[in-house]
Amino acid sequence: MGELSSRTGVSTRSLRYYEQQGMLTPMRLENGYREYSSFTEDQVRTIQLYLNLGLSTEQIAGFLHCVLKNKEAFCEEVLPVYQQKLAEIDTQIHLLQTIRQNLTDRIESILSEQSSDGGNHNERTDS
């Protein structure tokens, strides 16, 4: 596991997690050590690619075996996951744009009030 970790740059903790999620299946030697095939390094890099797209390990596990054997275009599970993720990102962008506009409005309001006050810093008297 340590060798695979250093070859891929993925922590042993992450590799164990991928194994728990069923995305990696090492063979066990008699001494209990894990033995990974040469193909496992490609599996880990593929998992990392999908994680970098913002997908969860559950989503990845749903189509990983297919994309390791075929091109993405021939794995019917991939496109709906991509479309769902894109919709989530669009929703997040909309929310962030709304928050940004609200902050911009508050900043403009404060700056406008400060400049119209002419340096008179009266404390708020309303309760």
Question: What would your notes on this structure say?
Answer:
By secondary structure, this protein is mainly alpha-helical. The protein has 2 domains: 1-70, Multidrug-efflux Transporter Regulator, Chain: A, Domain 2, CATH 1.10.1660; 77-117. It is 65% helix and 3% strand. It has 5 helices and 2 strands. The protein has helices at residues 2-8, 12-20, 39-52, 57-69, 78-117, and strands spanning 27-28, 34-35. Strands 1-2 form a two-stranded antiparallel ribbon. Helix 3 (39-52) crosses helix 4 (57-69). The N and C termini lie far apart (64 Å).
Could you give the topology of this structure?
Blueprint: H1 2-8, H2 12-20, E1 27-28, E2 34-35, H3 39-52, H4 57-69, H5 78-117
Antiparallel strand pairs: 1-2
Descriptive labels:
single chain; 127 residues; mainly alpha; Multidrug-efflux Transporter Regulator, Chain: A, Domain 2; 2 domains; transcription; MerR-type_HTH_dom; MerR family transcriptional regulator; DNA-bd_dom_put_sf; MerR_fam
Quaternary state, please? single chain
Number of strands: 2
Which sequence of strands runs across the widest sheet?
Answer: 1-2
Approximately how much beta-strand content do the residues carry? under 5%
Distance between the termini: 64 Å
Order of helices and strands: HHEEHHH
Radius of gyration: 25 Å
CATH top level assignment of the largest domain: Mainly Alpha
Largest beta sheet, briefly?
2 strands, antiparallel
Protein name: MerR family transcriptional regulator
Keywords: DNA-binding, Transcription, Transcription regulation
Pfam families: MerR_1 (PF13411)
